[in-house]
Amino acid sequence: MRLVLEKRAETPFALRLLSPLLAVALTLVSAVIIFAAMGQDPLHALTVFFILPLSDSWGLQEVAVKATPLVLISVGLALCYRSNNWNIGAEGQFLVGAMAGGWLALATHGAPDGPWLMPAMLVCGALGGALFALIPALLKTRFGANEILTSLMLVYVAELLLDWLVRGPWRDPQGFNMPVTVGFEPEAIVPLLLEGGRLNIGTPIALLVVVLAAVLMGRTLKGFEIRLVGEAPRAARFAGFSADRLTWTVFAISGGLAGLAGVLEAAGTVRMLQPGISPGYGFTAIIVAFLGRLNPVGCLIAGVFLAVTFIGAENAQIMLKLPLDVTRVFQGLLLFYVLACDTLLLYRPRLVRSVAA
Amino acid sequence: MSLTRRTLMAGAGALAGAATLGRDAGAQQRLNVGVVLIGPVGDFGWSHMHDQGRRRMSELLGDRVNATTVESVAPPDFDRVVTQLVRTGHRLIFTTSFSYFAPTQRLAPQHPQVFFENATGPTTLPNMAIYNARFYEGRYIQGVIAARKSRSKTIGYVATFPVPEVIHAINTVMRGAWSVDPSMKVRVVWVNAWSNPAREADAARALIDQGCDVLCSHTDGPAPLQLANERGVFGFGQASDMTRFAPRAHLTSSVNNWGDYYAERARAVIDGSWRPTDTWGGLGSGMFRMAPWTNMTPEEVSEAERVRDAIAAGTLHPFEGPIVRQDGTQVIAQGQRLTDDQIRAMNYFYRGIDVAIPG
Hints:
Chain A: It is a multi-pass membrane protein. The structure holds 2 protein chains of 2 kinds. By secondary structure, chain A is mainly alpha-helical. Chain A contains 13 helices and 2 strands; from the N terminus they run E-H-H-H-H-H-H-H-H-H-H-H-H-H-E. In chain A, helix 7 (202-219) crosses helix 8 (221-231). The radius of gyration of chain A is 22 Å and the shape is globular. By secondary structure, chain B is an alpha/beta fold. Chain B has helices spanning 5-29, 46-61, 75-87, 101-107, 136-149, 164-180, 197-209, 223-231, 259-270, 298-313, 340-344, and strands at 31-36, 65-70, 90-95, 115-119, 128-133, 154-159, 185-190, 214-217, 234-239, 250-256, 278-281, 288-290, 323-324, 330-332. Chain B has a 6-stranded parallel sheet, with helices on both faces. In chain B, strands 7-6-8-9-10-12 form a 6-stranded mixed sheet, sandwiched between helices. In chain B, strands 13-14 form a two-stranded antiparallel sheet. Chain A binds chain B through residues 58, 62, 65-66, 163, 167-168, 171, 176-180, 183, 198, 265, 269-272, 274, 276-279, 310-311, 314-315, 317-319, 321, 323-324, and chain B through 34, 40-41, 68-72, 74-77, 79-81, 83-85, 87-88, 98-99, 102, 106, 122, 161-164, 167, 192, 344-345, 347, 358-359.
């Protein structure tokens, strides 16, 4: 006897939509149990975790700031994954974007610059991320190298490049040999949008990207091509779509978006370059992309949800004195439930008698 | 009187006001203290010891403080965590890493009613103090012990980044070692991380393979010491008492003690005497101590204690002249002593250390 998973003939559309919500509900139930086990009032704990971050303007702005890089990166990844291109290296593309944009900020440091600087930095960041993402695309289409491995390994290349730059040529001469660049000048810092918070132009950019990506996927031939190549490569070939060209396109888009997120983060929240510039956004965005069902609007919702859990975790540490590990458990549970729900909705477990060998 | 919406609102407002008043009265008695950590509480090194300091402060001051730790705060999240601490009524905030120096410097003027303390930063502000410990004093003692213990006459140093803090630590280890045996050598591997157990262990392995038989480490965790234990050489613990991680290899550890300082600073805020001080305490003031000596002979122990007591009493100073750079230029002559600013900015190895500074 063994357990096999059989693909269900069809899964109702409503169930597909409900699956992530079911996963969130299960996570919440687990959260209640965990909080109760840790001696906290579950209702109060859930309020601190999920409601408080959304309860005032400052909190909402912080959620937006935290969600922006996750949404930007995950929308790009969703396009990639839809077309069966597995870009795991968004973290590296994020860092290269930060370096490319940061390079411009450092090159103009102390020199006369103007309002052109910020847009130019954003373009540099997006270009840097896109070019870096084209390396795995090239290796895949030209040599058949597995893009999961190459894109992942390029993350370490990007990390070490940043490490070298900030310890070597870009190091702040007044920085006590610490691996940091000088702080960016005001012109090179992403403009804030509201008083009393850190909301910056990154958030409207991310929302625009979500809209554009949703239109691209739902209303254009390119979107159809992406879906077709991913779901039925043979049919796509018959339709005259080039899978190789599409690989280049989606890698460039997702790398560009990750790079844009990188420069926005470097010039927005950190305001300098240093090795710890990303708390794993490129990897967390993979979770966001799947949680959002590889759909741009879904990515937006999932990105905001994950941002709330991150900030909720900080609140829980500050107001409930709960350790950080509790959040990590949460996020792990959440992904686990998402995958479990998906699997059980799309597949049916069945016991089969093993055939005598 | 009819119960209108307005009276209801007024009643609710009064209730809320009373609740706030009650909270304020409580807050006046209790000082909320925030501690922001760069790593996890469980690193058994730097962040762990700051958290231990927070605990000790709470023990010492009891009900007068209410302390909060936020761990593994990455630079992009720092502003939010500090702002949230301020918003939840924390009036004294310790930001425990050099990486937080620039952002603390940026945030402190925005919250003039809050007192900030940055560990290992170089400059103060009206509401921002800085503090650090003279860890080099412990390094000198390590050098003395290492020279006694080493048969290969070579010390291995698992270094983090080529920052002055680490460079002067390596120099002092060698100063201590040379005071016993002028033929002592050092080998250095830079792991370019404060905490990365896998790389730390690799570095330790490489150093042992190159003939080092006593390991010093500047990283946060016990990995190099554990490897020393496995390979049958000696090593020193860093930040906390690491005897239990390496019962056969451990000689001594520099054990950080931030708690007394934290308690003193919290007391200063409570009684209104807080000033933006620049504190650099050593063995003498108890900012750290040497953990129990293990795997050492009674003679070695008594020598280590003699050196420790001399440093604590100020009769032995690890940065006495003459100090000559690797390239042969003299920094200070016999009879002189480096100033704190010179120590903090140290950017060169001593003559006799044939290791290059990267970058």
